[in-house]
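I hope you will forgive my troubling you with a question about protein structure. The full record is reproduced below for your convenience:

——
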Amino acid sequence: MEESVSKKAIVVLSGGMDSGTLLYHVLSKGYEVKAFSVNYGQRHEKELEYAKKMCVKLNVPHTVFSLPLSEIARGSSLTSDIPVPHGHYEEESMKQTIVPNRNMVLIALAASYAISEKAEKVFYGAHAGDHAIYPDCRPEFAQKLGEALKICDWFSVTLEAPFINLTKGEIARMGKELGADYSLMWTCYEGKETPCGKCGSCVERAEAFSFAGMEDPLLQM
């Protein structure tokens, strides 16, 4: 059964492949969507630039909120002057990319925005490949935080994580079916002109495109 077109939703949009595909997915369900991004002091703003371009193309209202999370959530190669590890996502070294409690903070902010907009749902793009490294991408995290969001205000907000049991390859395949424009989604942890192809995020993106039988448009530029 399709969701009612009258429903409002907030999509937490990093500008990466998972949240970008999620935006296409939520739009396909008929929601009135607004995108919400956070500049939390990440080492580069490339993803945010891509998020803006994506929302312009899709005609989705986009809010970027600045919060210097990096000032207190230190010790991550994504927010501190620490080299980004290379290799596969599931390697122990990838834990260096954890930003402490990031998703709880971002989702809580998105929930505040949702309440003010009277949007019934907040969507975020955690997926199965994240579970081994990121504690705030696990199903139990989404479940518990979702329970809190329902009672944090008189207006109840539901947290949705529709990709939480999907692999990145399955997400890419879904995006292919939805006609998602992956030239507007930046994945690499490095903020250089082109993707490095070596960080965990790049490696996993390459595997996902291979699984879905697609070429990565960012590598064709």
Notes: The helical segments are 17-28, 46-58, 102-117, 139-151, 168-178, 200-212. Residues 104 and 136 are 7 Å apart (CA to CA). The two ends are 40 Å apart (CA to CA). Residues 102-117 form the longest helix (16 residues).
